[in-house]
Structures are given as C-alpha cells and as structure tokens.
Amino acid sequence: MTSVNKKTVEDINVKGKKVLVRCDFNVPFKDGKISDDKRIRGALKTISYLKDNGAKVILCSHMGRPKGEFKPEFSLAPVAERLSELLGCEVKMAKDVIGPDAEAITASLKDGEVALLENVRFHKEETKNDPDFAKKLASFAEIFVNDAFGTAHRAHASTEGVSHYLPSVCGYLIQKEIGIMGAALEDPKRPFVAILGGAKVSDKIGVLNNLIEKCDTIIIGGGMAYTFLKVLGYEIGSSICEEDKLDLAKEILAKAKEKKVNFLLPVDNVIAREYKEDSEYMSIYSDSIPDGWMGLDIGEKTQELYAKTLKGAGTVIWNGPMGVSEWEHFAAGTSSVAKAIAESGAISIIGGGDSAAAVEKLGFADKMSHVSTGGGASLEFLEGLELPGIACLEEK
Ligand code: ADP
Ligand code: MG
To answer: What percent of the chain has pLDDT over 90?
Structure first.
C-alpha cells in the first residue's frame, strides 16, 4: 500500500524557488464556459501557500483527452482566467507546455507570481511518461509538488516522471486524501463498516479483498449484490450477474465467514421489467424475484437493516451506489444509505466517481467527513495498491 507519511509543501523551503505544481484542472465545460470550478477552487490552498511564501509558482495540468496534439478546445486558458479571479492576481498563461513561451514565462517569474503551462496532454509523451519530456518539464523548476490526486494512480511525466529530477513533495489536497483514507485503512475507529455497490463484482474485487481483511461489516448493494445472491441459491431474474465471477463471489463469502466479517446482502429489492428510467417497477423480497425482472435498487427493509447497522459505526467507507441512482425511481436506496451515514456520526469516506457524484446530487456531500476527489485513484487506494504519483514523493 502507498505510504501516507509524505513531505508536504510545509516541510521544504520554497522562498525564491521555482516550484512546479501538478494540479487537477480537468474541469467540465458547457457552451465554451467552465460549468463547475470546484477543482480550481480545490487547488487554491496549495497555490496560495506557495505564493504567500515567496515561491515562483508554475502550474500544470491535463484536461480532457486531446490525444497528444494541440487542440484549442482543450486549452487551459479559461482555467488561467478563472484562477486569476479567484487568486486576485494575474496568472500568466503559457501558449505551450515545454516550448519557447513556457520557457520565457517561467524564466521571467518573480517571487509570488503564478504561471500556468498549457495542457500537458498536448504531448503524447505525457501519458507515455517519456523521460526527455519529463526532464524538460522539470528543468523549469527546482521543486515538484504533486497535488493532483485524481491522476496519482497514473505514472505519467507530470505526475511521476518529473520526480526523478526534482525534490518532490505533496500539496494539501493529496495530503488530505491520503491522510484521511490512510488513517481509516490503517487504524480505523471501530466498528469499521464498508459499503460496496455499483454495477459489477469484477470492478470491486480488489476493494473487496482488501477491505474484508480490515472491516467488521461489509454491506453490499447495487448490481453486484445479485451475483452474491445467485451463489446463495436465489433466483435473480434478469438482474445483472457475472456468471464467470460466481466462484469468486463464493470465495469472498467463505472468506467473510472465516474472518467473522458480518456480510450483509439485500433482503428486498426494487425490481423493474426493463433497464429503463421509466420502466414499470415494484418492491419484492430477495427470495421472490420473478423471471424477466431485474433488481435496480435495494428495497425498504434492506434500507432499514443497513441504516440500523450504520448507526453504531465508527468508520464507514463507501464505494458504489446501492442502485441505479441516476434514475429517480431507483435512487431511494442510495439516498437512504447516505442519510444513515450522515446521521451515524462515524468518520465517513466516499470513494469512486459515481458514488461521489451520487452523494453530491442527493445533497449529502457536506455531511461526509471526506468525499474523495479522485474516482479511479481512490479505488486503487482502497484496494491497497501503491499509487505511483504518491510513491515518488519524499518520505517525512
Ligand atoms: P463508482 O464509480 O463510485 O466506483 P461504479 O462505477 O462501480 O461506482 O457503479 C456505478 C454504476 O452502477 C452506476 O452507473 C449505476 O447505474 C450502476 N448500478 C448500480 N446498481 C445497479 C443495478 N442494480 N443494476 C445495474 N446497474 C447498477
Ligand atoms: Mg464508476
């Protein structure tokens, strides 16, 4: 697992130093305008610290998938503009990443000034973690700060490559992510409850295997519940099921028993005739799912059971919605679990892109201790994997 004891911007002297900061400015756009600037605001703490402490701040990020070539619609210029407003100072926008404009702008920076390089993914060398590209990028600076948690599970030139040439530390965002999630995994306040859902067992095998070693209770919802129910002999109609994962589900159930982990599955479900937002639907116990119907959410009895279990929890880690929460008729399970977590007073951590989006949409985000900003990265962290963009940073 990734060590969480990393040096931060506060552990090094940044005064007068050129500092390259990898941010996550991968923001959504609508009609040519930034439609949500949360990620830009999230980066302010680290940027302001560096600025206030006299660093020459050189920011970089990716945005979208320009596939290794310059495409104006993926330019970070609108981010520089928004950032200038938020910081209340000019953010100098370079026209390239490692070209003459970036070189000139980074060389001209005065203490406390901020520049932003163009989208690092305008170069195919970025995702290939090309050493020459990384070296050139690193040559603009004297220190590297990684503050992009969302790409920390990728060994790219701007997330890992540059660390080979510069002293490297983390920013406040990564520090918070690994601090909270690391503490929960290493020394959880008990009872420690994991809630796992989402579409497929196969997406969550790693998380299941890691958390089953640490948790007191595992709560299952979402499409993956039906693979488990099938193993236990239930008829599951046309619910999503991975036939080739039945053995694995069986092993997980056996492991839970062996480790005395309380393993909870839905006792009732909201089922639908079709996989459609406006499908006919009804509630039914898990032992009575009719042929041709599919489970798209946990039912009310299950909601009550899960809420009761969550009530006494010390730590809760949640990944994967309890149903097709994008659709109104199948969102109640996810909503009720979110409410139960909020009311439990437990340390609560939400990982995974769709889970974070569901919690936000249902209005529970500010009731959680931590909603991870990195979908794939948070999953890999919960799997106990080493994240290259964090492993490369200096230990305290
Ligand atoms: P995360 O991104 O948080 O890791 P996942 O991607 O694993 O979460 O799961 C989210 C997806 O699972 C959503 O698209 C949701 O519609 C789907 N899902 C949840 N429950 C079911 C179900 N019962 N049947 C089919 N799909 C489901
Ligand atoms: Mg997802």
So the answer is: 95
